Structures are given as structure tokens and as C-alpha cells.
Amino acid sequence: MENKTLPVKIEFVPKTYDIDFAGVVSNIVYVRWLEDLRYLWLEKYFPLQNQMEKGFAPAVASTDIKYKIPIKMFSKVKGVMWVQSISRIKYTLCAEIYSDDKIAATAVQIGCFVGLEDLKPIRIPPELMDLYMEFSI
Fold this sequence. Notes:
This protein is α+β, with helices and mostly antiparallel strands. About 25% of the residues lie in helices and about 40% in strands. Strand 4 and strand 5 form a beta hairpin. It has a single domain, classed as Roll (Thiol Ester Dehydrase, Chain A), CATH 3.10.129.10.
């Protein structure tokens, strides 16, 4: 995870209900795994509870997944997520999902933070911007 800003890593275990009719992990499972990674990222670097107490929360604006190789039932799966960039209003998270140490998928998520009262985007909170600047140098 060298050269990745604010990274997290997690292992996944494909379950029988994750497997589709072709005998591989269903595409929708990757989205769930990305959410697990994003939640872990938030908990490690910018806890959700603290955000909500301050009146805002993260939102995903888009998710783009590129599937490289299929993942099967007993594959050893891990995911890595990190911050690619943060601007005034949005942030970009990148992820890689590995199956038996080969890249099975890559993903990019664009996110922002929204006020809980009106659900409109707000500026990136200064605490997160400061953390990003500290670790991206």
C-alpha cells in the first residue's frame, strides 16, 4: 500500500449467496465490498459518527468499476482503497480488489459531503482536507 494516500485494506470471503449462475462472484457484490472499504476508510480517518454530530455525512456521486478477472467461490480476496484526490467540493477514492493476489477489479468512486438538513453538497470539511494534505506530501 506504499504510495497510496490514506489507505485501508480488508479481506473478503466470497459466500455461497455471492455466486451467480455462472459460478463466479456477482457484479453487485463488488459494490457491497466497495461500501465495506469506504466505511472502513471513514472509520479509520474521518469517523461517520463525528460527521453526523456536526450535521453532515458522506455521499457517493458515482462508482465506476472495471472487472478484470472473475472471482470464484474459494478465492482469497482482499480489497485496498485510498484517496486519489480531494478538491473543494468532492473527493475521489480508488480501489483495487484482488483475487489470489491478481487484480480482479479496479474502481473509482467520486464522493462529496452533504448537509443532513437539506442534503446539498458542502465544502470538504477542513479536518479531512488537513489530513489529506498531511499524508499526500
